[in-house]
Amino acid sequence: MRPATMVEPIEILLVEDSPGDADLAREALESTKVHNNLHVVKDGEEAMDFLYRRGPYQEALRPGLVLLDLNLPKKDGREVLAEIKSDAELKRIPVVILTTSKDEEDVLKTYNLHANCFITKPIDLSQFLKVVKSIEEFWLTIVRLPNGSK
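-> structure tokens emitted (150 positions)
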């Protein structure tokens, strides 16, 4: 595992329309030893603006990981995932689906769109925090991610 103190902060983009879930994810990520910069956007269009550095996100750093809800306003998570994975510059960014859906069709569709993993959000608060910490531990300390372009 990488020592968290010896690496640059990891940019994480959380695409989540629920303020409560976004706050819980932020709390879970801030309570760990891995230094990261969490950016939260509330809908699919805003996510694509962030990734393409449009509008207020012109200075945004490319995230090393995207945590993506499926049921979003404006542009849903499936559309966002399809757009990310069809873009030559964005497709290497790991996308973790973090959603309330337990629908097998959603699981199949997102894996067919090249999601890196699918996680159903637990309803229980302590389990939700545990899941986010597990995501962080796996994706930010165990897995080697490609260097993001700045």
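DSSP finds five helices and five strands in the chain.
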